[in-house]
Amino acid sequence: MSFIVKPSEIEKTSFEIITKELGNRTFPEGQSEVVKRVIHTTADFDYADNLYFSENVIENAKNAILNGATVITDTNMALSGINKKILAQFGGEVHCFMADEQVAREAKERGVTRAIVSMEHAAKLKEPLIFAIGNAPTALIHLYELIKQGDVNPALVVGVPVGFVNVVESKELFISSNIPHIIAKGRKGGSNVAAAIINAILYQLVTREGFEK
């Protein structure tokens, strides 16, 4: 028995399998690449139904990235997973403030989570901003509050926290809003899913704009 060992061939074959198993399922332009990359990352075909996209969100996200968007994550895992090399080619950066000493100190003093303070620090950054939340529903809830208060106006919110407490409720806030979003409905998600969604959008831009992958 022979095995596929080259990374590029493994990825190519994986996507061929995903496309075949999706059968006749079709998705709007730009969304197919996101759905397939999340399935590739998780081996979970439920995401073909779980991912919810607001209107024109993919194109809006691409425009933000082309204008040097900063991506904010709520975990170092998502920070590590996002392709920073590609993002940098468009003038963008990725930040996670969860381990920041100032954030930790302020959270302790106020008796709130680091996720809440992290979102407040991120809201002060220069726009355009993209938020990729894969772990903390409190981050997603507080981000929603900051948006409603007019403190920040994200170009995209990727809301895919995983778990049982406040997870579904935090996602529903965005699904029923006009905030640009990609949400994983239900309990499923994770930092790897958040990173996969951002990367799927970046890879589409690489192909379109002729940048290096």
TrEMBL record:
Coiled coil: none annotated. InterPro entries: Cbl_synth_CobH/CbiC, CobH/CbiC_sf. One of its GO terms (biological process) is cobalamin biosynthetic process. The keyword Protein transport does not apply. Keywords: Cobalamin biosynthesis, Isomerase. Pathway: Cofactor biosynthesis; adenosylcobalamin biosynthesis. Residues 9-203 form the Cobalamin biosynthesis precorrin-8X methylmutase CobH/CbiC domain. GO terms for molecular function: precorrin-8X methylmutase activity. Belongs to the CobH/CbiC family. PANTHER family: COBALT-PRECORRIN-8 METHYLMUTASE. This is Precorrin-8X methylmutase.
